[in-house]
Amino acid sequence: MTQGKITVPLILVNFKCYLEATGAKAVQLASFARKATEKYGVTVAVAPQAADLRLVSQQTKVPVFAQHIDPISAGSHTGHVLAESVRDAGASGTLVNHSERRLEVSAIEEIISRAKGLGLATVVCANTSGISSAIASLGPDMIAVEPPELIGRGVAVSKAKPEVVTDTVGRIRNISREVVILCGAGITSGEDVKAALELGTQGVLVASGVVKAKDQAAAIEDLANACR
Amino acid sequence: MTQGKITVPLILVNFKCYLEATGAKAVQLASFARKATEKYGVTVAVAPQAADLRLVSQQTKVPVFAQHIDPISAGSHTGHVLAESVRDAGASGTLVNHSERRLEVSAIEEIISRAKGLGLATVVCANTSGISSAIASLGPDMIAVEPPELIGRGVAVSKAKPEVVTDTVGRIRNISREVVILCGAGITSGEDVKAALELGTQGVLVASGVVKAKDQAAAIEDLANACR
Amino acid sequence: MTQGKITVPLILVNFKCYLEATGAKAVQLASFARKATEKYGVTVAVAPQAADLRLVSQQTKVPVFAQHIDPISAGSHTGHVLAESVRDAGASGTLVNHSERRLEVSAIEEIISRAKGLGLATVVCANTSGISSAIASLGPDMIAVEPPELIGRGVAVSKAKPEVVTDTVGRIRNISREVVILCGAGITSGEDVKAALELGTQGVLVASGVVKAKDQAAAIEDLANACR
Amino acid sequence: MTQGKITVPLILVNFKCYLEATGAKAVQLASFARKATEKYGVTVAVAPQAADLRLVSQQTKVPVFAQHIDPISAGSHTGHVLAESVRDAGASGTLVNHSERRLEVSAIEEIISRAKGLGLATVVCANTSGISSAIASLGPDMIAVEPPELIGRGVAVSKAKPEVVTDTVGRIRNISREVVILCGAGITSGEDVKAALELGTQGVLVASGVVKAKDQAAAIEDLANACR
Lengths: 228, 228, 228, 228
Prior knowledge:
The structure is a homotetramer. Helices cover about 40% and strands about 15% of the residues of chain A. The first copy, chain A, has helices at about 25-40, 55-60, 85-90, 105-120, 130-135, 165-175, 190-200, 210, 215-225; strands spanning about 1-5, 5, 10-15, 45, 65, 95, 120-125, 140-145, 180-185, 205. Chains A and B meet through helix 2 and helix 3 of A and helix 2 and helix 3 of B.
């Protein structure tokens, strides 16, 4: 199914700054993502570090997301990340406001606007139902919700009370029917992916559950298989 | 001449977030740098955006610097720049604390320490003589001094009073004999490079003077020729 | 009229870091605000610097707002502004996310939550209609809208096209019926206040128009008179 | 003894954002400081929150420090801390770059310069020997050194290896003979104060050891007594 320009369900793997997903290992992990897509017909996208964007997008056919872009236009911005640059390197979208890279609300709005102008899809992270509905008003393509009950507590979404996710989905849907909602916490297994989709999300944002897995390929396939 | 592991005089061209130095144009500009090195025997290095580091380092033989790295170790740092990643992408050094990307003093110290551990050369920017001598105490490989009288005022170092630069060089030398000193402002012509070297620096950090030049190749050659 | 616990229309004067509104001059300006309230029956509140909160609240009967509080609880937060401290000093509310003190969206949510728990009213600033409606989802007591067409351009709201304000008011009202809306830009005269109220706001946030006026008392009375 | 305008040895008590040192309790704690000064002849100064500066300086005769000021001049800086404002409120100095409020190196330099112009003494915090010597180049009145071996590990300076402090003191003295050095970590008892003074510092910066003590007055007197 395609919701707007994004095909859902979507599994987006955030490589963070893990050495297990840097350089040649980023390419390898992206190739596992590609194989899962071919095997199960579900979109698996990846978000490598900035310096690996071009390498991964050239050597695999996987949709590639930046982990962050700055709210700037081309010019004198040493050390920043320009939207045009990540697009030139092959990115088709970007994470925004990840919990490890929080932004001012005006920056989020400007990044969404710039990304839209360049055809980059935006996945804005939000860690409460209030913030999720606030973000929905800014018009991103996707929102990755990180219910505080699930973040960093080792609670799987499949084991949590349903309202932890459905409340947030409900508040977002009051603001926007179109925005794609990803479950951005509590995903470590295919069972969690199934639960997330049943609770009204259209996909998942995962990181260590895949990147730090002993068998990265098997971990991705487990998630992808659950989306069928 | 080689001062420590860095060959001086050094011309370092900062590509900032200029579209004239992004993607394929970053490679082209780096190739002009390479030609200037071959022609005049002076090291010309470049600092492209993060997403272009690997492209430039693979397609040219020019020493490549990152524009910024974060004071982090590998791990959960979405949207940050990991030293190991830029080194893997071919960088041999990094700018630190550029005026467009100022850092807390403890971050500067940690970045210098991390870079040293990975064999990355550090060029720390400093905008007054006081800050320049402060930075010297943190042990970087190079300091790019940006005398406030020269920054953003269109004053060329070759036209300024000598003490604008020599005072800063003197204060740095009271702290460190080894650190390489670059002149980081007031450079638009070969005449400026000559003046900077005569005032006790070992090279220059330039940006728009080269990147925004109508004839980028000619602009680089003019600077390189002045170092002979 | 009282909307929730806040009496509207409201004129809120932001003292910023102006010397014309520091220390004894802050008390004097607050006393002008008090006189305008007595004369015209409209609430005029003031937002002095943190170090002047107690002085102003003790020496005048004017409602006092902090200019900022941090999203922290009591403890080891050297150099930050604790909600309990400004309340103890007499504040009955606080500005949040002013354009000169932008905050991460999660910080805004936490500040609103903390302020509510302590009975402090929140005035969250927002500079576009998108951000205004986003902020409305976070449940503040008041939103000060700063239409970009009016900020820093010397355009008075009374001279601007009505939709510059009404669009934003409309988007906020889609999210919340209760939130008090202040016009936070384009106010320099009583005529502007009238226009702002007619366009659907319940008051104004002003700064230099009052603080920098040759006759501060007259400037405040002009605004208050327009609210009758 | 007076070193420059500052009388040493100095005990500086940082009130942080502790409720045990907010409002009326800030005044009480400052009065304990005053009594210790009268009893033992050693300067005990306090650093309350911004909103308590005037209250404490008016109701006690204790030297009062701000916990932070911003690198700004008077004007449009909503929510910031203006040097002129804290001086007007009775402060005779300010902490700078505390580990809970780190600053960019250029901000530290500007704050020192502004404070000097207004006659405010600066105590700049520094957490390694490298940073301590860097800060010394910026010309503050005092440096509070926080050896990483002592911070937050419950190690008392009196129990630590001497070189943890003497190395830092030595590096600072290579840069400046005049700067007053405070020991900013590892102080919980009079024995620690004695050790700190013997290792070449001229005083101490303390916080929880006094503020959180069951008997604040006794805790201060224990420290002051050790300075005689």
